[in-house]
Amino acid sequence: MTYNFALSAILIMFTFGFMILLNYSWQNRETPISVSYGLGVIAASFYTFGYAFQLVGTTVEQMIFWIHVQYLGIPFSPLIWVIMILQFTGHQRLITKKNIAILSIGPLSSLTFHFTNEWHHLFYRSMALDYSQGFPLIVLDRGPLFYLHITYIYSYYLVGIYLLIRMYLKAARIRKKEGNKQIVLMMIGSFCIFIPPFIHSIGVFNIPIDISPFGLVISGLFYFWGTYQFNMLNLSPLVMKKVFESIHDAVLIFEIDNTLRSYNNSADILLKPFPDKKRIGCPASQILLPFPALLKLIEHQSDPHNVTIRSMQLEDRYYHVQFSYIHGRHNKPVGKMLILHDITESVRYEESLVQQSRQLTELNMFKDKMFNVIAHDIRDPLAVLVNLMELVEEDMQEADLIKRQGSQELLEGMGEQINNTFQLVEGLLEWFHTQRGGMLFNPVIRDLGDAVQKTMTMMNVKLNSKQININSTIAKDVYVYADKDMLDLIIRNLLSNAVKFTEIGGVIQLSSEVLQDKVVVAIRDTGQGISVDEASCLLQDEFPISKRGTAGEQGVGLGLSICREFVHLNGGDIWFDSSLGVGTTFYFSLPIASNPAIDKTVVKEEIV
């Protein structure tokens, strides 16, 4: 028996062995690369199965038939292989219908030229049998179309090998010591597919039989090993690369000598000062220079088995930083890795909670003090009202003229007490309104002079009752940008205080001055003035003390607190000057609106 039967048996055996790989591809058909791999196995099976029977053929006709069987797979093998390589190396975006149609021109042309060779003899010029080996072998005289067929096969091969080598070099930058077994096995398998046909075509070793199918057998063995031992298809480098790039945390990978070897998209924010092309291979001492804390972590961590986790601030962001070594064979360190998880939002939310907690604590203390004062401020005038009402009832029982006049005096006293109580409750309600977040902030362009004149008109009764001379030099062409209701309340409260603490026959002067982008309003009175002790408590966060006016006017002491909050909310400031026995001047500033025709957007937001 000649050796052609042994070679034929080997090819048939491995053809059926290919079915194991085909079954594996079918089980993993959800992944595109497994589908390509399965189609490649089918194409290779046509080649090996057809050549197995060609080796044992005895006539030209039999051999031509089995050559036809081989060419059901040979033209498409390069196309399927290059698609698989594109998927394996992460270039799936290139696998479009248009590109596949273009790449299919070569395989379809070869298939057509081969099966129509009897009409043109440009693929094979002639065919004959050779018995020099003790069994018949077909000798093919190749024509120009055959070499065109070889050209497109090896052009596909060169493209695929280039992509594999490029991928291997990129992976080696990260893991120089270990390399990447998946890529290596894919490269070896690819070499076994295309090198034997090249050797046979140029006739270097003068081998009488075609060794190309046996190259497919060897390639199948390497693919079989890579698939089952290293999950070459299931865990392809493409998948790992996509996982690495999709991580939201910033990941920086360094060599053991602290040079940068890889990073993901999220790390770009840390590497902005360096151009993309200069980042890889750059020492950590340069690339982390703006971040001394990270550089210290990279350069001074000596224990390779220790994982360091810290929280730190880098510029205006906060990060949870994890540093660890990358280990290779025998647990030997081969690199370093930094992972930075952005916790800025969490930190700011925590700070906001702390701030809110502090404000709630202060407000609760303020409430306790306030209710302690209110309990006395409201109880006393109400008690007087009750007593006055009892006296009125007694006097009304005796309806003579004299006692009617006495009742009139009592009624006037009641009216005064009722008015004071009303002002007290009004002030409390205004303050509670702001503290509970019930007031809307609606800034508009407002004529300051007009607002002052309206408030002065509303206060004519109080001014006349104390014979106070009031004068305003604020022109009507001064415009501010503020909330209308808040501006009215600020002016009303400050004027009320000026009236309250000014003696009968005193003077109140209002004026304004433009300083840069603000209008400063001054309300000057000739009242009692403010002592040093009282001045230290005004406009502070502590609960203010209520004080009676020159005519016995009462209040809850919240007016200035409300003014301060409203002025600040409108983007201004408030302060005062005072001399005891001479008078007091209160100042407040508001943003200027130089052109009243400007159509400013009205901002509405709930005060929280």
Automatic annotation (TrEMBL):
Q: Reply yes or no: does the keyword ATP-binding apply.
A: yes
What PROSITE patterns does its record include?
HIS_KIN (PS50109)
Q: In the Enzyme Commission scheme, what number(s) does this protein have?
A: 2.7.13.3
Query: Pfam families under this entry?
Result: HATPase_c, HisKA_7TM
Any stretches that span the bilayer, and where are they?
Answer: 6-26, 33-53, 65-88, 100-117, 145-165, 185-205
Keyword Transmembrane helix in the entry? The reply is yes
UniProt enzyme class? transferase
* Start and end residues of each Histidine kinase domain: 373-594
- What's the catalysed reaction? ATP + protein L-histidine = ADP + protein N-phospho-L-histidine
MF GO annotations? ATP binding; phosphorelay sensor kinase activity
SUPFAM superfamilies assigned to the protein according to its UniProt record, in alphabetical order? ATPase domain of HSP90 chaperone/DNA topoisomerase II/histidine kinase, Homodimeric domain of signal transducing histidine kinase
Q: At the top level of its lineage, which domain of life is listed? A: Bacteria
Q: What keywords would UniProt list here?
A: ATP-binding, Kinase, Membrane, Nucleotide-binding, Phosphoprotein, Transferase, Transmembrane, Transmembrane helix, Two-component regulatory system
* CDD domains assigned: HisKA
InterPro entries reported for this sequence = HATPase_C_sf (IPR036890), HATPase_dom (IPR003594), His_kinase_dom (IPR005467), HisK_dim/P_dom (IPR003661), HisK_dim/P_sf (IPR036097), HisKA_7TM (IPR031621), Sensor_HK_Regulatory (IPR050736), Sig_transdc_His_kin-like_C (IPR004358)
State the protein's name: histidine kinase
Q: What is the lineage of its organism?
A: Bacteria, Bacillati, Bacillota, Bacilli, Bacillales
